[in-house]
Amino acid sequence: MTQGKLVIFSAPSGAGKTTIVHYLLSRIPELEFSVSATTRESRGSEENNKDYYFISKEEFLHKVAKHEFVEFEEVYSGTFYGTLRSEIQRIWDSGKHVVFDIDVEGGLRLRKKFEDDALAIFVQPPSLEVLIQRLGSRGTDSEEKLKERIGKAGKELTYADRFDIILPNNDLTTACEEAERIVREFLFGK
User: How is residue 172 annotated by DSSP?
Assistant: First the structure.
């Protein structure tokens, strides 16, 4: 069994982490996206087994009881997310490194568990106000869910200094290029 490295991107919803991760996947073939399991319904064009493993709450809790998760959390009331051990191993067995697009607390748990084999990057939005605008313009959440995301975002912004690197996302192109430089240096020393 071989073990690769883990690159963890965390941020509040709307900070740009998913866009940055997709950019990196198109530029660094040695990376593969870790698909998280969740109990929430799919949104928009999300696909099962590609964007998430969409499973029932009962199945999720069964996997928790069997210790199949490296980390998991009830991110929003009644909605669980988690990283399956088998997903990380699948990627390592293919000879690649794992890249995560994960919530802040989950990212910190992964960083703590994998220590020197992990790099945790916090994507910093320009401000909470900009984040609120981005979330509102998505049009994917109810007013209640939007308020929940905004409340969580305010808390998550206070976690930034617990990460290895804070990556400002004031300009998406610049943030993507800087992320690529940081990840290449971590993975390959260049």
Answer: H
